[in-house]
Design brief:
Number of helices: 10
Strand content: 5-15%
Helix content: 25-40%
Largest sheet: 6 strands, parallel
Radius of gyration: 18 Å
Number of strands: 6
Oligomer: single chain
Length: 297
């Protein structure tokens, strides 16, 4: 998740960008990087996930790793989806990544390649704990894109069965054109790179995004699902979220339920229609139709 939530007119956009840069300068230092290479697992929650005594069942043989978005964390992003999956018999785990020194609760701000290294270590911990040979990954926003670096460059493909992205910025984002204003603010891009590299990495055309997508969107052996909403105001245009390649299913939420008005945040944090489609992607052999009625499922 990125910090802008609307498509403002240009003067307002400039004020918004200026305010963001001031906030970034206030909370981060120029030398800030992702915290530890190995994440500290959350030891307990109130709703049954991150339970390291959980053993996958025959019905659901793979643990599910949840990857939060920018400014998210391992708990708040998943207060609805994690229990939803636990109640369906999955072993579910979530991590914090991309931490900056002195910035609590709001994560996913460090360099994304380093965040992918944290994910790699976390997946290894989960697989060792559960005894499963592979995991499934579900991510929101940056959390639906960052794992692709793990899959392509950090040896993750043999350890992952399915990659499911909720509003992932797979090809970066223009933020409805807001980032095009950066050249009008001398030093703004340097400030973003120095203080919050996790934001700068997500800009469409950034060196990170260029490297990530070089040679194709996907890797062999992994099933990919992208779940997008046409009302996404952060990862824009929303079709940029889609992946191209074998074993890919791109889903538009409004094709499943035309009256669903979820935007970028809601699709990842509260939308049970989207969550039904996540459950289908995790267990396609037992998938059921996802409709507007899925909200009560």
């Amino acid at each position: 998740m990125l910090p802008w939530t609307r498509a403002p007119r240009t003067p307002r956009a400039r004020r918004t960008l200026a305010a963001l840069l001031l906030a970034v300068a206030a909370v981060a230092t120029p030398t800030a990087t992702a915290a530890a290479a190995t994440p500290t697992a959350v030891t307990a929650t109130s709703r049954g996930w991150n339970d390291y005594s959980c053993k996958p069942s025959a019905a659901h043989p793979r643990p599910v790793v949840l990857v939060h978005g920018t400014f998210g964390n391992s708990i708040d992003n998943w207060l609805v989806l994690a229990p939803y999956l636990v109640n369906r018999g999955y072993c579910v785990y979530s991590l914090d990544y991309g931490q900056l020194p002195g910035v609590p609760f709001f994560h996913g701000l460090g360099p994304i390649d380093e965040s992918a290294g944290q994910l790699a270590a976390f997946v290894d911990t989960v697989l060792a704990s559960t005894g499963a040979p592979k995991a499934d990954i579900v991510g929101h926003s940056q959390g639906g894109m960052m794992p692709n670096y793990y899959l392509k460059f950090l040896g993750g493909a043999p350890k992952v069965n399915a990659m499911i992205g909720l509003a992932p910025d797979n090809h970066g984002t223009t933020l409805l054109g807001l980032t095009k204003l950066l050249p009008y603010f001398p030093g703004a891009e340097d400030l973003l790179n120095a203080n919050t590299p996790g934001l700068a990495d997500q800009v469409a055309g950034s060196p990170f995004i260029t490297e990530l997508n070089a040679g194709g969107d996907t890797v062999p052996g992994v099933r990919y699902t992208v779940i997008a909403t046409r009302y996404d105001e952060v990862v824009t245009p929303y079709r940029s979220q889609y992946l191209d390649g074998p074993n890919v299913r791109n889903v538009l939420l409004q094709d499943l339920c035309p009256i669903d008005l979820s935007e970028h945040v809601a699709i990842g944090t509260i939308d049970r229609i989207a969550y039904h489609e996540v459950a289908n992607a995790l267990d396609p052999a037992h998938a059921t139709p996802t409709t507007c009625a899925s909200v009560i499922g």
